[in-house]
UniProtKB/TrEMBL annotation:
Native source organism of the sequence: marine metagenome
Sequence ranges assigned to domain SbsA Ig-like in this UniProt record: 101-211
Coiled coil start-end: none
InterPro entries in UniProt: Cu-Rt/internalin_Ig-like, SbsA_Ig
Keyword annotations from UniProtKB, A to Z: Signal
Entries under Gene3D superfamilies matching the protein: 2.60.40.1220
Protein name according to UniProt: SbsA Ig-like domain-containing protein
Amino acid sequence: SPLSVTQFIIDTTAPTVEEETAVTTPSNDTTPRYTFSSNEAGTISYGGSCSSSDNSSSVGNNSIDFNTLDEGSYSNCTIRVTDSAGNTSSPPLSVNTFIIDTTAPTVSSTSPTDNQSSVSVSDNISVTFSESMDNTSVTTNTSNTTCSGSLQLSSDSFSTCVQMSSSPSSSDNLTFTVTPSLKMFYSATYKIRVTTTAEDSAGNNIASQYTQTDGFKTTITIPTTAGSAHSCFMLDNGSVKC
């Protein structure tokens, strides 16, 4: 009698893999997660600078955690899936370019600067950071004179703080500017403080609170109108009435 050959399947179709959830960037997570989908189960292989202990894929979405990566930018990571018939997805799936940032930001400069004198009582207050910040973390007090928010200004060692007219503004997420709701006092010393609740765009908080050492001093000169016979005096809000 004829020999019956066992049923077999010829599969020459490679798996199809697609990105589902990109790696968050920038991030301070050194073992970032990536999610891709595959239309076949199989074995995962990695290329470029990335590797993982997650080596098996299933049909549908697959979330993988890359092995620990150093701080830096990654643009060459790839993923392939090989099915049980030996077909490998091609071209390899390119993981999105991502940045790992584990460095805490610092305050690079302030305006007015520490030890600056003769500062106008109507000047704005600015702080520049060493790297791009999460603008939702750079906040200030706009309601009263309590010392709240990550960007503060005080003339009494932060027992109270100057109320600002609005939230900090920035065009580049590096330099943030606030405007006091009332003019500062004449001939007064103010200090700028940035608390550790401020964080960069990767989620790193400032390592230690920043406070100006000596602060800045506002101008002593009270403006008067030339030839005026009126006397001038300072109001509680720092403005001058003649």
